[in-house]
Structure formats: C-alpha cells, structure tokens
Amino acid sequence: MPGKPVLHYFNGRGRMEPVRWLLAAAGVEFEEKFLKTRDDLARLRNDGSLMFQQVPMAEVDGMKLVQTKAILNYIASKYNLYGKDIKERALIDMYSEGVADLELMVLYFPHMPPGEKDAALATIKDKARNRYFPAYEKVLKSHEQDYLVGNRLSRADVSLVELLYHVEELDPSALANFPLLEALRTRVSNLPTVKKFLQPGSQRKPFDDAKCVESTKTIFS
C-alpha cells in the first residue's frame, strides 16, 4: 500500500502551495521534506528524482511527479475533483490556468527586488480587480450554482479560493465588489477539510517573510 504523499520543496509557499491546498481539500494527509541547503537540492538532482532538475516534486503512489500542473491534475483526478467528463475538465483547466496566471505573480511578489515591488503590487491589484475577479464573478452569476463547474467542488474552486486569500493579504478590499466570489470563499472555507487546513498549526504556509526569502536564495542561487 502506498504511503502518504511526500512533498519536496522549501518551507514556504511557492509553486507547492496549490498542491498543499488541493490535498487538504481532498482530505489527504501528506508529509513534507523541506529543502534547506543547496546540497539538499543537489541530492534530489543527483539521485534522479527530478526529471527536469527542479522542484516542486511530489512522491505519490510510487511515482515522483514534477511540474505543478501535472501534480495537481493527478490529485484532482484521483480524488474526483476534476469534473465528470471532458467538457467539464476543459472548463476546470481553463479556470485553473487563469488562476495560475495571477497566483504566480502573487506568490513571487515577496521574492522581488524592493525597487520593483510597488509596480508589481499595482499590477496585481489591477489585474485582480479588473481582469480575473470579474471573469470568475461572471461565471458564477451565469449559472447561479454553488461552484464553478458542474455544481460540485473541483480543483478550480480550490485554486480560486486560495488565490482570493492570497490577494487579500496584499489588497484587503479586493473582494468588495464581488459578492459571489465572497460567497464561494465562505462556502469552500466551511468544508470540514478546508476549515481544518485554515486553522493555525496546519501545513498551510504563511506569507513568505524575509527569512523565507533568504532561505530560498541559499537553496536556489
């Protein structure tokens, strides 16, 4: 019997945070092995664990999966968070990719040079309020259902709710004009598995602070 998934990454958000959220939403317990030094990364590269010489990497069901989208798609498929047919999966992919476009900007914001942060923050706020959030609000309004696709929880809902939390850390009033997104966040957050993940002491990672940023430089530079 395969054991718990094991996630290999640094002790911060980055590209692994969506994986943590999805596993948590699915009610799957997982372990983490944090990279702390360049040597830790070198060991994974040298033992053949990293197909493209980079993390994140997740050990799942006897496989060593890399590439965040591949990891997320496998988890979503295994735990019935990927729609009922090919059309629903196409919509879930489309919505999830839109989330990822903005999420990457948010996740890397703490790691940017100080002189670039003001412009980056302005871009994040503008795209959230004027491009991405209106698009998802429109989807929810169009079908008047509880979730984005098929009126059931999917990885698109989980990734979107994660994004809403992250954007609000940078722009506290970002959701003021999006009541359906607010309702979706509340609905997903109240699911027992997600509610547990949102509690202090869970494996959910806080905003990457200065210490985390310096740690990533030690590992990856």
Write out the strand line-up for the largest beta sheet, numbering strands in chain order. 2-1-3-4
Rg from alpha-carbon coordinates: 17 Å
Q: How many DSSP E strands?
A: 4
Rounded average pLDDT: 96
Head-to-tail CA distance between termini: 38 Å
Question: Spans with pLDDT under 50 lasting ≥5 residues?
Answer: none
State the secondary-structure class.
alpha+beta
Number of helices: 9
Strand content: 5-15%
Shape category: globular
Largest sheet: 4 strands, mixed
Approximate helicity band: 55-70%
Helices and strands, in order, run as: EHEHEEHHHHHHH
Could you characterize what this model shows?
With 221 residues, this protein is α+β, with helices and mostly antiparallel strands. It is 57% helix and 7% strand. It contains nine helices and four strands. It has helices at residues 17-25, 38-46, 68-78, 86-108, 114-143, 155-170, 179-189, 192-197, 210-220; strands spanning 6-9, 31-34, 57-60, 63-66. The protein has a four-stranded mixed sheet with strand order 2-1-3-4, with helices on one face. It is globular and about 50 Å long.
Structure in a nutshell:
With 221 residues, the protein is of the alpha+beta class. It has helices at residues 17-25, 38-46, 68-78, 86-108, 114-143, 155-170, 179-189, 192-197, 210-220; strands spanning 6-9, 31-34, 57-60, 63-66.
